[in-house]
């Protein structure tokens, strides 16, 4: 399905150019340190909030024990600043020995014993964004090291390297990862460094090497940042949708739901729109001190099921007013005879006042002859069936900077 055959110099020698590692057929879910803890390395001043093994072990405990793993959050992601400033004498990466005193294999094993998977960070350039040793010149060594440590997922950033080199270097790392024989999910920051050169971004090419890719700016801890990502993704939605398929995902960056900087309505809005896109759900928050309401938002199984829908569609914004944007995504179940899909439908209210929304189903593309059953995914309430052509979908008052999120299941 992914393969393309290249004829080299007109001979019969052929090469299959494709990423076929069988991983992340639905978008990855997990927890990552970056947006909450950045590159905090002062463990004397911030013993519970610095990049060290205790932080990852503690968050792994919460994932496994507080219900997150049960609903799908599976990967524990180390981000930048975990390394020693120096490679070992034989060129291998090493963790900072005071902050990771048991070493990375110990931490990977700790994570694995809890039924979770272990994800690590590196950079394709000479140095990581935080100034630690990069992989340039060491791609094979680093792939082998990660495999030997029990790494299940690599995020490869793109600081400190010539942009034109990325189209060779990112695929090269995929070949080294593949050659280790260990299944390792491969997340590339490649297109995120080409924000201003969209003509150079070919998602088919990127998806032939990478399981997922960041496209745009890092998220930060604010509603404004969420909205800026939504605006950029909507602007390029046709191209993003065309480049996505199971195993090859756009990554709009971390879920910041679970932090006090955003309200519960804003947290529901982020979870909703990310699910419409089939985006990775990788939280960055402190699972030790999360509020019960935000925990419930992060663990909403109906919403997660839309994100993890096996069709893996990138849903789109299809209608808008000054305040409201309507997003629609085709999901399972499909009608067995006609193939007509079910739909997830989101109304995002960007205004600072509540808005009522009513829409005719056909405007959203809903045209199943026998109709749909409607469910509000945030309240869990059934909203009745739509069975006639002149039916209307009423979203209850959509809260300020919030959403309504329904599933219309074929009848
Ligand atoms: C390890 O990190 C600490 C800061 O927490 C730093 O002072 C030290 O130099 C680092 N050690 C190495 C070997 O990079
Ligand atoms: C470690 O790296 C730093 C800066 O990158 C360098 O100044 C130092 O000499 C290195 N130390 C060793 C033991 O190689
Ligand atoms: C390596 O690539 C081949 C061919 O695409 C694939 O069948 C295999 O599963 C891959 N192995 C790993 C470990 O990713
Ligand atoms: C994008 O990359 C694919 C795979 O390498 C290639 O077949 C296609 O022609 C490229 N598209 C453009 C517009 O360059
Ligand atoms: C919005 O809907 C609510 C409940 O359905 C209703 O009470 C209210 O009058 C509506 N507001 C407007 C402006 O239509």
Automatic annotation (TrEMBL):
Keyword Disulfide bond: yes
Signal peptide annotation: 1-18
Biological process annotations from GO: glycoside catabolic process; oligosaccharide metabolic process
SUPFAM superfamilies: (Trans)glycosidases (SSF51445), Glycosyl hydrolase domain (SSF51011)
One CC-aspect GO term: cytoplasm
Catalyzed reaction equations: Hydrolysis of terminal, non-reducing alpha-D-galactose residues in alpha-D-galactosides, including galactose oligosaccharides, galactomannans and galactolipids
Catalytic class of the enzyme: hydrolase
Gene Ontology terms for molecular function: alpha-galactosidase activity
Domain annotation Alpha galactosidase C-terminal: ranges: 342-407
Entry EC no(s): 3.2.1.-
Record key words, sorted: Disulfide bond, Glycosidase, Hydrolase, Signal
Binding partners and assembly: Homodimer.
Family stated for the protein in its record: Belongs to the glycosyl hydrolase 27 family.
Protein name: Alpha-galactosidase
Taxonomic path: Eukaryota, Metazoa, Ecdysozoa, Nematoda, Chromadorea
